[in-house]
Specification:
Blueprint (H helix, E strand, L loop, with lengths): L1 H20 L18 E3 L1 E8 L6 E7 L2 E6 L12 E5 L6 E6 L6 E7 L2 E6 L4 E6 L4 E7 L7 E3 L4 E4 L4 E5 L6 E6 L1 E2 L2 E2 L3 E7 L2 E6 L4 E6 L4 E7 L1 H10 L8 E7 L4 E6 L4 E7 L2
Parallel strand pairs: 1-20
Antiparallel strand pairs: 2-23, 3-4, 4-5, 5-6, 7-8, 8-9, 9-10, 11-12, 12-13, 13-14, 15-16, 17-18, 18-19, 19-20, 21-22, 22-23
């Protein structure tokens, strides 16, 4: 009897407490606070607009010694049959002043220039073409173990993307892989890294099929900034809503004037832009 009495008292007491509340529903859980982002949103303003060849399926864009160069994709993958090309382009008119067409079995990708030498990636063919300036004379070919997407240089090494979350560092004279750096955004891997440009100590990367350019610290692979090209891309898509391949792709930096240029695949315009702090 004593044990049963002692056990029943707290049960009755709890029942009275619940009846006094008038509501026995389970309290709602405290909402989780999302973690703070370490990626700064960087503003972008269009300063000047230039014409761009809508036949150019832009894969690489660079300004070297004041001259604009562009690498394009083509071959049997291109419905119109236009070959991949390496182009020297007049910025003011958008017209090619010099053209080198690749064999149609190759799909051209990113380009960069180091010490008057042009490096042009190919996509699935896993070959890197090397040319001299100003004649576009092909002097070397290097094999590469990954797909080729984007390429840039920090002035000493070549930095390559393959559509994954990795950046690959190569020796420019031998194309020997030196190291691999994974890229993360707030602790998650950044996928689909595409066209690259090296600006003031940071790697800037288009994210394929998305309206973003990420600013990446090459020392640790952390994305520290994000640029939204959505408004520019939306305006261009409204002109040609049927063409879904016209994604942003192409970042060029003029080291002498400190000007930055962007464009996209078959975009009718190329933009000089100013980035926020």
């Amino acid at each position: 009897m004593i044990k049963r009495s002692l056990f029943s008292v707290p049960v009755i007491f709890m029942a009275l407490l619940l009846s006094c509340n008038g509501d026995d529903k389970t309290p709602a859980p405290t909402p989780e606070v999302p973690p703070a982002s370490n990626v700064k949103n960087i503003g972008i303003s269009v300063i000047n607009t230039y014409p761009h060849d809508t036949g150019s399926f832009t894969q690489g864009l660079i300004i070297y010694k004041g001259q604009l160069y562009e690498g394009t994709g083509g071959s049997e993958y291109a419905p119109e049959g236009r070959a991949s090309e390496l182009l020297k382009v007049n910025l003011q008119t958008g017209k090619a002043e010099k053209t080198l067409a690749l064999d149609k079995k190759y799909f051209g990708e990113g380009i960069t220039i180091l010490n008057d030498t042009v490096y042009q990636l190919t996509w699935r063919e896993k070959v890197v073409f090397v040319y001299t300036l100003p004649d576009f004379k092909k002097v070397k070919e290097f094999p590469i173990n990954t797909e080729g997407w984007g390429i840039t240089t920090d002035g000493k090494e070549l930095i390559v993307s393959d559509g994954s979350s990795n950046l690959y560092y190569y020796d420019p004279s031998t194309f020997r892989l030196l190291r691999t750096q994974s890229v993360t955004v707030n602790g998650d891997f950044l996928d689909s890294i595409n066209e690259l440009e090296f600006i003031d100590g940071f790697v800037y990367a288009n994210q394929w099929n998305r309206p973003y350019i990420f600013k990446i610290d090459p020392a640790n692979g952390l994305a520290v900034g994000k640029i939204d090209l959505g408004p520019i891309w939306d305006r261009l898509k409204s002109r040609d809503p049927k063409n879904e391949e016209n994604v942003p792709n192409g970042i060029a930096y003029d080291h002498d004037t400190k000007k930055i240029y962007i464009t996209g695949k078959k975009w009718p315009e190329l933009y000089e832009v100013q980035l926020g702090n």
